[in-house]
Amino acid sequence: MIDIEDALGTCPIVAILRGLEPERAEEIGQALFDAGIRVIEVPLNSPRPFESIACLARLLGDRAVIGAGTVLTDEDVRAVAAAGGRLVVSPNTDTRVIDETKWCGLISMPGFFTPTEAFQALAAGADYLKLFPGDAIQPKIVGALRAVLPPDRGIVVTGGVGRDNIADFFAAGARAVAVGSSIFKPGKPVEQIGADAAALIAAWRDGDPH
After folding, report:
1. Positions in the chain short of pLDDT 70
2. pLDDT recorded at residue 208
3. Residue 150, burial from CB neighbour count under 10 angstroms (0-12, 13-18, 19+)
């Protein structure tokens, strides 16, 4: 089973599938995997999200990290674990959700916007920090945060990331980015989803100093 650091090392882009329906989960998951994506998040305000998470986990669980977004309660955390998800992503810093995530043995990625929230999340046991909303900041903010946060706790910029600025966020010190509508929207043809994911990965590689 792939570790999340190995997954992000292969491709530091998290695909957010907000609005995904379980009937499309397998074909879209396979298209994203074929494009190079190795971390997939299904927000819980999608239709029947736990069914989609279970489908993706069965298909890709040993080769990709599957998880949930918009996780707001400890009950949701337990449901993610029961569905086979391994990653719990929230828009906010809620220590109860972080505690439950770690108790269930899952990967914790709470949302934050201020240094205070970031350090609260880390104190509660967060594995990664989701900087949200990303479209409200400049990439240089990531660099300023990186200067004070522990080097082993990566920042994942979420919101407003696309081909035109992805390289800037990585240059500033982001560990990964999470991308939704630039890759996936309900009803979007699966071929276009795969193509857009591949184009975003290419934009990251073109800007990778390594």
Report:
1. 208-210
2. 63
3. exposed
